[in-house]
Amino acid sequence: MNEEQKTMALQVGVTVLILLAAMTIGEYFIGLFAPYWWAPLMAIALLKAFYIVRDYMHIGRVFAGDEAEEHS
Amino acid sequence: MSTGTLSIADYHKKTVTNRLGLWLFIVSDAFVFAGLFIARFYLYGAGVRPELSQIVGLIVTSILVLSSFFANRGEVSMAYGDTKGYFRNTLITIILGIAFLIGVVGVEWQIAPYGPDHDALWSLFYTMTGFHAFHVLTGVIFLVIVYRNARKGLYTAERHFPVEAAAVYWHFVDVVWVFFYPALYLIGLPPI
Amino acid sequence: MKDTQKAGVFSIGLVRGLIAMLIGFLTGAAFVSLIRLILGLSVWTWNPSGNQFGFAESAWVVGAIFGAIAFMLGVGVLSDWLKWMNGQQTAEHPADAFASGWKRYLSVSFDHKAIGVQYGVTSIVVIGLAGIFALIFRTELAQPGMQLLTLERYNTIMSLHGIVMIVGILLGVGAMSNYLVPLMIGANDMAFPRLNAFAYWINVPAAVILLSSYFLGGFDTGWTGYPPLSAKAPLGMDMFFLGVYFAGLSSILGSLNVIATTIRLRAKGMHYFRMPIFVWTALATAVIGLTATQLIGLSFQMVLFERVFGMGFFAPDKGGNPILFQHLFWFYSHPAVYVFVLTGLGVISELLPVFARKPLFGYRWVALSSFGIALVGFLVWAHHMFTSGMSPYLRIPFMYSTLLVAVPTGVKFFSWVATIWEGKLSFETPMLFVLGAISIFLLGGLSGPPNATVATDLHLQDTYWIVGHFHATMFGGFVFPFFAAIYYWFPKITGRMYNEKLGKLHFFLMLPGFYIQSLSQMQAGLLGMRRRIGDYDPALGINLQQLLITIAAFVIFFSVVIAVVNLIYSARRGPIAASNPWRSRSPEFMLPSPIPQHNYEHAFEVVGEPYDYGIAGAYVSIDPDRYIAKEEEQPAAGGAVTSPTGATTD
Hints:
The complex is a heterotrimer of chains A (72), B (192) and C (650). By secondary structure, chain A is an all-alpha fold. Chain A has one domain (3-63). Chain A has two helices and no strands. In chain A, helix 1 runs antiparallel to helix 2 (38-56). Chain A is elongated and about 45 Å long. Chain B has one domain (8-45, 53-186): Four Helix Bundle (Hemerythrin (Met), subunit A). Chain B starts with 7 loop residues before the first helix and ends in a 6-residue tail after the last helix. Chain B contains five helices and no strands. Chain C has three domains: 12-85, no CATH class; 104-573, Cytochrome c oxidase-like, subunit I domain (Cytochrome C Oxidase, Chain A, Up-down Bundle); 587-641, no CATH class. The two termini of chain C are 16 Å apart. The chains are: A mainly alpha (72), B mainly alpha (192), C mainly alpha (650). Chain B binds chain C through residues 1-2, 4-5, 16-17, 20-21, 24-25, 27-29, 31-32, 35-36, 39, 42-44, 116-121, 123-124, 126-127, 145, 148-149, 152, 154, and chain C through 80, 84-87, 89-92, 191-192, 195, 252, 256-257, 259-260, 263-265, 290-295, 297-299, 302, 305-306, 309-313, 315, 318-321, 324, 327-328, 331.
């Protein structure tokens, strides 16, 4: 419930954005120069989805139950 | 969600149930997109993709990723009681969401060389982007409704499940695009 | 409270909904027609060889969608959500529009018991309709040659029989899980009461749209709707797709609710392995319904797009592939048969220990076998496609995965047999139906492996053998257990007892009727009768079997009529039932009959095992006398006229 925690939570968002941006640019260039590389592209997509689901969608909260509430 | 009179403990209990319901819905919805995704590769494999503007694809993808980032910021702000930060970030999210819709339906669909009835590849392109755009639209509507209610002062740091739900749904729409972008824009080459 | 006695016909939700649906339809059709007008396309068609129904196809489709949404608005299911959107608060459990009487069930109620009854009654009505379709085309098939119907009509009625029956079965499954799951786990309602009401009411426009297909040219594809035929069928095809789509939406949302309820609202001490076994099957069913149903919705939307927008997913000339449809379709439609039967098998496992006065044999194995069936069910879909032209190498893995289904199903069978073994059986109507269900499901199960084995399936595909097989599984897995459940919980639902003699008559007509029907179908199939065909060659030598099937169909229908008469009469005039007529240990039988409006006034705790019949100690910490004594204190409140105000304000 304090500023420090909030800054940390926001920092996670920034880190994930940087990762996503880097991977998207990587994808784009693979698509430009090696469009038959479907497996790496899918791997990147899975990794992107993993970060979004874990850090933006907070999938952990679904399994947290009644006790552990709030704030990641 | 009609929980203004509940105690904090009851509200949390209900939030856990609502969150589970939201995620079950997302799992269910994911099957539609998975079906389309599989249909695209079943029919065309990894060698062929529709002839689309790479630059538009990159721009709309970036817009959606950025909007997800701001949606997350908005939700975090609300969770720490910073309503101002919530309003600012959610407004940016909504604007980016509309920009994405314009990018896909208003630009990509208009400059595409063929219509949906040309062949199965273009049918897939319009259906996949169409289904996704429909979800973006509902996501924007969801965000707007929650934004409006937040303006009325309905949510606090302790009680803001609708804010979280709108954000999570928005991220889900983003995750779908994470898979659709390579499937439609990157993998394979346009048929000659 | 409003004076609902004097309220006009418009206070009934169903009436408002249907009127709104008509308005919604016209609005949608007009909207599309306007757009077509602007685009310079034809608005009105009257082409006897093609679309002879006025509006263009797209206008009909959009009109039907608008109609369904308008129905939901008109009936009032959405009003609380709309208020939430506006930032208003609503009571957790608002009072029903009608406190009592049959009108209560024609309007929106958020009480899971009312919704369960709504599901159940709708299910019987819809199944009855599908039965009438069956009688019509069975009469046609009683003799070779065409006497009663044209071939086109035959196709439509046969297809409608299939799909309407499926919708009816889904409703019946919804009835059982909605009514029973919260009661059995000690909850006072489902996790999402409004979603629950929504999931029920969407079935009404679904049924209306589905049945309207009969008047819009019908459809001749059977219930599977395979393209390319379904891409060319008359307008009725669109209504078929939309009707199934909305019914599927109901299935998805209902499943979501069942899962959330089971995970979140269990009573204290009710661990997963202490839940009544029915809850396990409802949970496994819900997992299938939640996920796989989306795929049938998707596949039907894709054909719809093909029809309306000229898309080419399944058209080979546009690079599409009709086999893709079959993959998407059967990815749902095979697991769907487990949706139909699993809850029924749960009812069997639930009732057997009560009537055998013995613990359920191998509780944990039976509980997990439901999930075994559900999970294996996801991996077997292509066994419907052995002759479809898909890659031949796929046949073998799907043959093995299909045969694997026999393992968890076998677990259930052995559990039932071991539970009956040395039990003190009593043979009331529910028990008769349970035993009948076991014998029939055995027939259905044993006729399955020949279809799963590629070598034999190539000959059996699309014959009446298949028809006999799946009617056996549906009767054994759904129809008989469903009636068992109705008779068993009837005193809990209505507070009155059904007529035992009529119940037994129902059983002793239905069981032989079914056996004659199913065995004759199998024999006719082995002798060369194709399914879905209105005529056959007398030289096949199956005239007698066809006649027997027809007679049996009438007998079954007649027995169901007896059941319906029995249930309606008993609900009004039957003798008052005891609160626990079957000496069950299940928590819902600790409550008075009919069950009070908010189920368990005091939360209870689970203190024992659910099926320890014949062993000392209770299952749940409810003292039935406390509720009964309370009932007697206020004799005026004994009926169904309790005022809901006291319960909703706190």
